[in-house]
């Protein structure tokens, strides 16, 4: 059985996106064990302090990374089709027996300290999206992948 953990800094602030987040988490948890961990977000919006913000967020994220298989979302990661992502999750889960922990950064992305711990770098798109929208996109793709693996109906 696939076991998932999703880590990201801060809570989803937009109520509409929060509603979608909860919707997909509920659907995912009907198909696999999935834990969402929202760690403390480093305060500050100035890119002048980006190194300090990324470092603080890395410390908060690392507290929840054990001996997991780490997937980091980054624009330099590999793009996969939905069926490829499903096979990746299945192979990784079966091959490692580890929890698959997917890490999404804040508005600044992820610091090198976290990226260097990754077992796999994944990109949702070559385009840039807000970190809160990426959360929803990831959750939708996780639900889609689990549906593919269980050969369930999923609207296309």
| Count of distinct strands | 5
* Unreliable segments of 5+ consecutive residues: none
CATH names the topology as Alpha/beta knot
Helix content: 40-55%
What proportion of the residues form beta strands (DSSP E)?
Answer: 15-25%
CATH architectural grouping: 3-Layer(aba) Sandwich
Describe the structure.
α3 (82-96) links the parallel β3 (69-79) and β4 (100-103). This protein has one domain (3-149): Alpha/beta knot, CATH 3.40.1280.10. It is an alpha/beta fold. The longest helix has 19 residues, at 131-149. The two termini are 25 Å apart. It has helices spanning 15-29, 50-62, 82-96, 112-115, 131-149, and strands spanning 3-9, 33-39, 69-79, 100-103, 120-123. α1 (15-29) packs parallel to α5 and α3 packs across α5 (131-149). The protein has 5 helices and 5 strands; from the N terminus they run βαβαβαβαβα.
Sequence-ordered SSE layout with sheet pairings:
Layout: E1 3-9, H1 15-29, E2 33-39, H2 50-62, E3 69-79, H3 82-96, E4 100-103, H4 112-115, E5 120-123, H5 131-149
Parallel strand pairs: 1-2, 1-4, 3-4, 3-5
Helix pairs in contact: 1-5, 3-5
């Amino acid at each position: 059985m696939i076991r998932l953990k999703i880590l990201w800094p801060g809570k989803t602030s937009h109520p509409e996106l929060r509603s979608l987040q909860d919707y997909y988490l509920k659907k995912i948890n009907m198909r696999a064990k999935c834990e969402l961990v929202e760690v403390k977000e480093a305060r500050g919006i100035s890119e002048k302090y980006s190194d300090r913000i990324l470092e603080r967020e890395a410390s908060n994220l690392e507290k929840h990374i054990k001996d997991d298989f780490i997937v980091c979302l980054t624009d330099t990661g590999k793009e996969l089709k939905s069926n490829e992502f499903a096979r990746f999750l299945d192979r990784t889960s079966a091959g490692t027996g580890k929890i698959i922990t997917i890490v999404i950064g804040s508005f600044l992305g992820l610091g090198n300290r976290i990226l260097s711990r990754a077992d796999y770098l994944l990109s949702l798109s070559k385009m840039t999206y807000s970190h809160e929208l990426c959360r929803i996109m990831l959750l939708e793709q996780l639900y889609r992948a689990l549906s593919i693996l269980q050969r369930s109906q999923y609207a296309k």
